[in-house]
Design goal:
alpha+beta; 1 helix; 19% helix
């Protein structure tokens, strides 16, 4: 299994929001500041700071090229 690492990031999400979070904050404090700004702009709406801890992706496509063995390959 291949592993990769990425820099940590934080998202600001609202469970009642209409759009999924897209901006990756590079610091926790930046995300908290944005959550506070959004909460002030939208009284009564909850904004949550999220930090991913793991991710998974299946990437197992194997490409095979077949050659005509009647042709000389050089």
């Amino acid at each position: 299994m291949s592993a990769q690492t990425e820099n940590a990031f934080w998202l600001v999400w609202s469970p009642t929001g209409t759009k999924p979070p897209r901006y990756r904050h590079s610091t926790e404090q930046s995300a908290i500041t944005e959550a506070e700004r959004l909460a002030r702009a939208h009284p009564g709406q909850l904004f949550v700071v999220l930090e991913p801890i793991a991710g998974r992706r299946v990437d197992n496509m194997v490409r095979t090229t077949y050659v005509d063995d009647k042709e000389i390959p050089f």
